Amino acid sequence: MSRAYFCALFSVAIFLATPTLAQxxxxxxxxxxxxxxxxxxxxFEILKQDxxxxxxxxxxxxxxxxxxxxxxxxxxxxxxxxxxxxxxxSLGKKNVINAFCGNTASNETRCTSCHTGYGWTDxxxxxxxxxxxxxxxxxxxxxxxxxxxxxxxxxxxxxPVPEGAKTITGALATPVDLSKAAMSVGVPQRENCxxxxxxxxxxxxxxxxxLSSALIAATRDVDVHMASDGLNFTCETCHLSSEHKVAxxxxxxxxxxxGGTGLPGMRRDVASCESCHSDSPHGxxxxxxxxxxxxxxxxxxxxxxxxxxxGGVATKTVWDWSTAGKLKDGKPYHEAAFTQSDGKALxxxxxxxxxxxxxxxxxxxxxxxxxxxxxxxxxxxxxxxxVVEVNRLSGSPDDGTSRIWPFKRMVGRQAYDTExxxxxxxxxxxxxxxxxxxxxxxxxxxxxxxxRYAGKPYSGSYGFVDTYMYWPITHMVAPGEDALKxxxxxxxxxxxxxxxxxxxxxxxxxxxGKLGMALFALVALGVAVHGGLRLVTGxxxxxx
Length: 544
Known about the structure:
The chain is of the alpha+beta class. The chain has 2 domains: 44-186, no CATH class; 201-418 and 461-484, no CATH class. The protein is built from 17 helices and 19 strands. It has helices at residues 3-17, 21-25, 54-61, 68-72, 76-79, 108-111, 137-140, 178-183, 190-197, 235-238, 274-277, 286-292, 300-304, 437-440, 443-454, 486-489, 511-537; strands at 82-83, 90-91, 241-242, 245-246, 315-320, 327-328, 331-332, 334-335, 338-339, 345-346, 349-350, 354-359, 365-369, 373-375, 388-389, 391-393, 403-417, 422-423, 462-472. Strands 5, 8, 11, 12, 13, 15, 17, 18 and 19 form a 9-stranded mixed β-sheet that branches. Strands 1-2 form a two-stranded antiparallel sheet. A two-stranded antiparallel ribbon has the order 3-4.
């Protein structure tokens, strides 16, 4: 049997042996009216008033939902602060440096436009302790009736709206009727989560690669779970919440869930594939059993998300800040040389941000991963002669816990202190300051202001260093028939060729492999010669 024929047969068998999720969990549930809420908020008299601000709405919400604000204020969504239990690092959005707009400190009114609260203008101190400053509407209101401005520290657009003002989704802002928004509330929908999570980094799908507006009305080929004509999951179907704490974290990833049950209604306290599908998700056949043998070494996402940035929305793959600041006739300019498949032209250069590259249907970067991530924080010395990993992935093929995971590897070039050898904070936003880069295009002023604001030492000398930043790919799960087949990885020049600890049939052998094959050949030759001599000498019968 030829290798190509075997792989084709094996692929068909995989497809036939792999059950669909619908087969595993039973028939579709009955339709739920409205948005799944147990109360019709249009009937609440307390919401039928003219609200002057978001906090006034929250005060009304707390009359019934008495503990909601307190719960929210004990979550990562509120604090943006997380101490990693394994590394001890202070992480969270307010602490880390990233490969996109750099940092939150000194850029708050822009960055905290996606905070689940109102008016957090200084992340050097904790988020406001006032319970009415929690924004109930951003997660629970109909997004057609409510959004946040992109530069007002989490506040919504209220009349009169400044000309040209935009929301956090990039849409032109229109005045919000807070009473109508309050009466529209229900369980969170994809659009609620997507306002921030789809638009992180400055635009649709810029940051994650597997989170975009394509998921709002997804087709089955884009995401089998969120397909509008299929399972129609919301984000909370997997990212369950308890006391407003949402399962799933990119700071401490559950990379290998040993507690998965695969039984509907059972353990669902983490956002992992195993928590629904178990660690033996494939059918009871020879092929299914062989595929199940992979689950202790290969993450489900590796085979079932063959590419990300699907569905017509590209993701940013390269961001070079070192070219930012160029002007034409003394004025900032832009270039838009990439057109994504839905026809939208995307910026490839902005005076404010530098050069970009984009991609659709991107093949992931693969790495052994045990769930631990260590960040390069502003006090860590770097080697500018090497690519600096903004977040380093922990894992090894030999540790017994890591699996092969897919990632978006964001390629960056960003500023660093050439004497202290540290990544730097910079102030980019601040239309009323003379230090914000987006206003005056002066790196010296921008970095000095950002470092001073954050209380970090700065030598006054800066340069630019190449960086990588890794984002786990776990959304945009393809249909089973589109999952990777055996020869996508187990072949010469396959996807995992460069990854240690993976056997590749047909690939070039290492020196040890060649010696092993030579030894095997010698043994086989010795056995053959011995057998031949016994036949020639007539001593091939029974041994005495």
